[in-house]
Write a structure and sequence with these properties.
The protein folds into 2 domains: about 290 residues, Rossmann fold; about 55 residues, 2-Layer Sandwich (Alpha-Beta Plaits). The chain has about 375 residues and is α/β, with parallel strands linked by helices. The structure holds iron/sulfur cluster (2 copies).
Length: about 375
């Protein structure tokens, strides 16, 4: 084989997923991958951006997660499924996994990967350290399961962008805050992708989203499952199918320039048949990006980073649950009460959600966000 192999198979509905996945395994020669993962720890990384029902096409379809989990288990892998949903933190992960159907589809393999995090040095001009889920760094293999969607800031949410979810707590807000322009955000996405590139990417492109994604776009049939060991190769092929020029999509441009996969679409070896996606709509918000990023940064990301939790000592019974649960080591114990070091706190909200006495009160923007169940209301 020459170039970067990308296998794709036609699949016109999730009821046909089992058969399509079997075909994909043949085309992508996943037997080889099965041998590698035997006895190894494998993190399956779907996209569960928020608590959205599966048919809204915001998140990876749960049946694909189920099939992949079963496949990896049958290959004797030690499987766990996890993602960091949106910018909402620990409790938001649980709610999102449940609502999207991914919790149930994981068949016992789901893990809230915001629970254990590490501070990781990052080679980037935007940030020196980010908070990354420990499960990402300790996995022997990562199977990336992105959804085929547009994204108003990144153009596409495919294989590379899906790895943004390795960041926990307020780290995503920190990235948005320090890389605000579209070009900068694209470069930052590649910096994050390089922390731990996935070993296999299987794209859910059966029902996808175009227009103003990642959550308010048009739900539309696309009809493909796509797989490759190189996420950039998957993304370039999908960009081509959608009629997009990869060099105009900043994170693809930076990834190509850094040699993280094919340097142009011609270096992809396509295994399978495909047709251009008819009438694919790109985000209209891109034209307003400078204003949008200023607005979002000022009114969402910065307020999240600056929000604080305040302890009500009259309610606290000094049980230490919050102190023991804090994933970032931001909690100190002083005079029988917990105290937060805000220089370290990642606003994951574990302490708030675990306190049975309701002793933590939220001040500022996070109060509104949490009381609304996240940045977007939970779908009914
Ligand atoms: S979990 Fe609640 S009650 Fe227990 S120490 Fe923390 S704030 Fe106090
Ligand atoms: S102090 Fe609370 S919000 Fe901050 S990192 Fe620890 S558990 Fe999360």
């Amino acid at each position: 084989m020459s170039g970067f192999p990308v296998a794709l198979t036609k699949c016109d509905g999730y009821s046909l997923l089992n058969q399509a996945f079997e075909e994909l395994k043949e085309k992508a020669q996943l037997k080889e991958f099965e041998k590698k993962v035997s006895g190894k720890k494998v993190l399956v990384k779907p996209n569960f951006l928020g608590p959205f029902r599966p048919e809204l096409a915001v998140t990876t379809y749960p049946e694909l997660v189920r099939i992949v989990v079963r496949w990896l288990k049958s290959a004797n892998a030690e499987v766990l499924v996890g993602d960091n949903a949106g910018i909402g933190g620990y409790g938001y992960n649980e709610r999102s996994a449940k609502k999207t159907g991914i919790l149930e589809a994981s068949e016992g393999a789901f893990q809230n990967i915001a629970k254990e995090v590490v501070e990781k040095q990052v080679d980037s001009r935007f940030f020196k350290k980010l908070i990354v889920s420990k499960a990402v760094l300790s996995a022997d293999y990562i199977v990336n399961l992105p959804k085929l969607k547009t994204h108003s800031l990144a153009f596409f949410t495919l294989g590379i962008k899906n790895m943004f979810g390795i960041l926990a707590g307020a780290s995503k807000s920190q990235v948005h805050n320090s890389a605000q322009r579209i070009e900068e955000f694209g470069e930052a996405l590649v910096d994050i992708y390089q922390i731990r590139p996935p070993d296999l990417t299987i794209l859910d492109g059966i029902i996808g989203m175009d227009g103003n994604g990642p959550s308010f776009g048009r739900v539309r049939p696309i009809g493909y499952l796509v797989a490759s060991e190189n996420a950039l190769a998957v993304d370039l092929l999908v960009a081509k199918m959608a009629g997009a020029e990869p060099k105009l999509i900043p994170h693809l441009k930076f990834a190509m320039e850094r040699g993280l996969g094919p340097k142009k679409s011609e270096e992809i070896e396509v295994i399978g048949e495909f047709k251009p996606i008819p009438g694919f709509r790109f985000p209209t918000t891109l034209a307003r990006n400078r204003f949008a990023s200023f607005f979002i940064n000022r009114f969402i990301y910065k307020p999240i980073i600056n929000s604080k939790l305040v302890l009500n000592p009259n309610k606290c019974n000094s049980c230490k649950n919050c102190y023991n649960a804090c994933p970032s080591g931001a909690m100190n114990w002083k005079n029988d009460y917990p105290e937060i070091d805000y220089k370290i706190c990642i606003r994951c909200m574990c302490c708030f959600e675990l306190c049975e006495q309701g002793a933590w009160e939220i001040a500022g923007f996070l109060k509104r966000m949490v009381s609304r169940g996240g940045l977007r209301r939970e779908e009914k």
